[in-house]
Amino acid sequence: MTSTLPYDTHTHTPLCKHAEGEPEAYAEAALRRGMKGIFVTCHNPMPDGWSPNVRMAPEEFGAYLALVARAKQAMSGRVEVRLGLECDYFPGAEPWLEKQIASAPLEYVLGSVHSHISAYKQAFFRGDMQAYRALYFDHLARAAESKLFDCLAHPDLVKNQDAESWNPESVLDDIRRALDRIAKTGVAMEVNTSGLNKFCEEIFPGPLILREIGARGIPVTVGSDAHKPERIGADFDLALKALAAAGIESVSYFFERRRTEFRINPDAITA
Ligand SMILES: [Zn+2]
Ligand SMILES: [Zn+2]
């Protein structure tokens, strides 16, 4: 199936220990879907003890840069392979991240509050899920305010924990306060189709939050969060429908960390 969006902005590599396929295979998948390219955004190295089993080790960062450079070279002239990074954010991580981000020629940097990993839970979960959700959205706004990132990944990821009791209306005041702060920073937010395959069975973010994002004019990106090549561009048709329903008419891409807007062709949105 052909994709109506030119890039998949969120993809992984085997270096994070829970994804399969070399970047070349993801790029081939994009080519087959008629896309212009992919952004490789694997999980960044973090300080000791921060979920080392789901990310590359600090000493592997050079190998990551080399891996993406190799794929870029191999696919040159056929499909674009662009260097990105998905960074875990928590308050206090800023100095580590600042140094890391400055050390590589990254085109696109995602900031992620990974509320499901044990290190984050240990630091911030105090037994009350509603309070945890509210804190998550505060951290998301802090991530934007840190100015380290181009975009916030899977913005309502916290809904995937205890998905049955998730109701965005019940934390809407916290969400709105966070979105007001994010809108002031100019940082983009991601429409991430991987949520459809998780407990929450819904795109990150859901329709209510996406409408609030649209109403504030916050730029949006679209990514599959592919952890295997066949998920490149997955459910982008549903992402386009969700964007249309939220009144959002364009998506953003970051090249060399500068934002470009791409207008969605309304004919591409299938009923
Ligand atoms: Zn993530
Ligand atoms: Zn990811």
Average pLDDT value? 96
Name of the CATH first level: Alpha Beta
What is the tally of beta strands? 9
- What is the makeup of the main sheet? 7 strands, parallel
Question: What gap, in angstroms, lies between the N and C termini?
Answer: 16 Å
User: What CATH architecture do you see?
Assistant: Alpha-Beta Barrel
Number of helix segments? 8
CATH homologous superfamily label: Metal-dependent hydrolases
Supply the number of structural domains.
Answer: 1
- CATH fold name, please? TIM Barrel
User: In what range is the share of β-strand residues?
Assistant: 15-25%
Structural class: alpha/beta
What this model shows, in words?
It is a single chain. The protein is α/β, with parallel strands linked by helices. It has one domain: Metal-dependent hydrolases (TIM Barrel), CATH 3.20.20. The protein contains eight helices and nine strands. The protein has a seven-stranded parallel sheet with strand order 1-2-3-4-5-6-7, with helices on one face. A two-stranded antiparallel ribbon has the order 8-9. The longest helix has 17 residues, at 129-145. The chain starts with 6 loop residues before the first strand and ends in an 8-residue tail after the last strand. Bound molecules: zinc ion (2 copies). The site of one zinc ion has 5 residues, from loops.
